[in-house]
Structures are given as C-alpha cells and as structure tokens.
Amino acid sequence: MTADKIKAAALAHFANHGYSGASLSGIASDVGIKTPSIYAHFKNKDELFLAVTEEAIAHEWEKATAYFNDSSLSFKEKLYGFLQLQMENYEQDERAKFWLRTSFFPPEHLEEQLMDHVYSYLDKMESLLLQEFKEAKEPGLQDLNIKYAAKAYIALLDGVFVEMLYGGEGSAEERLEASWYMYERALFN
C-alpha cells in the first residue's frame, strides 16, 4: 500500500518538475513518511522513476486500445478524436503529462532505457493504427499506402505533443486544427 502511495506522489512530482526537479524528500513528505522509508520499497530514485514510467506506459496503452476499440465512432472520428483526447489527457491526467514529458525529456542517465520504452510504445501504436486502417471502410483509403498514412498520423501526433510541451494549450489547438485539416484532406477527399 505504501509503495502505491509513494508511486502516486512520485508521479505528481515527476510530471510537474521532471526527474531532476523532483526530490525524494518532497515525495516522502506528500506521503507522510520520512525519506529513508522510501528505500524500504525502492532501491533509489531511478528505480522509483522507472516503476512510475512502466505504470504510466501501461495506463496510456490501455487508454489508447480502449479508445480505438470503440465501435460507435467512424474511422475519421476516431483519428481526430484521439488527437483531441491526447490534448485533454495532457491537461487533466498526471500520468499522461508524465509520460509525455518523460518521452521528450528523459533523464540523461536513463535515456537509453527509457527510449526502449518509447520506441516499443510507438511500434505498438503504429501496429494498432495499421490495423485500424486495414479495417476502415472509408472510400479512397484502399488506394493509400496505409503504412505511410499511419506513420504520418504519428508524426501529426508528435507535432501536437511538441506544441503542448513548448507552446501551450492554445497554440497546440491551432497546430492540431491546421495539421488535421491537411491530413484529413489528403486521406478523405
């Protein structure tokens, strides 16, 4: 139970302050324990950070697969809606904020290990999108190179993520609208 409380507090600290800005003493204080008590559950800050990362990745993947399994939306609605959902999640969900921040700004000494997680997630996302494209019944999609369409969608998502990190919500919304306008015209017109 205490390990879960430690991870929850750590998630908030890492999401809002990054790896170097988060302190074990601040995390311990939020949990209501002394800093050395953290070591009963986690060997060090790195182990805690990696445990939080793995949970955040699993959570984000569950949300993505649940979203794309929703059969009430058209393919086009799913693609656009997922972009909007990612923006909302970044603003409202500490795990999404943490995962995005970690993906783009990993602690240098953990970068290789974290990039393995990032690329694994991106590969799974591309596979999920390829399956969605294969199953889509939209006219004209059968003439597309769906592998390129899936990769372009991920690039569009990356562009929105970068703007969320650097430009803020209003700027990210503008980037989303402009990018989606061009992507939609290429795929569905």
From TrEMBL:
This protein's UniProt keywords: DNA-binding
The keyword Cell inner membrane is assigned to this record: no
UniProt DNA-binding region: 23-42
HTH tetR-type domain ranges (all copies): 1-60
One term of GO molecular function: DNA binding
Database matches in SUPFAM superfamilies: Homeodomain-like, Tetracyclin repressor-like, C-terminal domain
PROSITE patterns tied to this protein: HTH_TETR_2
DNA-binding in keyword set: yes
InterPro entries according to UniProt: Homeodomain-like_sf (IPR009057), HTH-type_Tx_Regulator (IPR050624), HTH_TetR (IPR001647), Tet_transcr_reg_TetR-rel_C_sf (IPR036271)
Name of this chain's protein: TetR/AcrR family transcriptional regulator
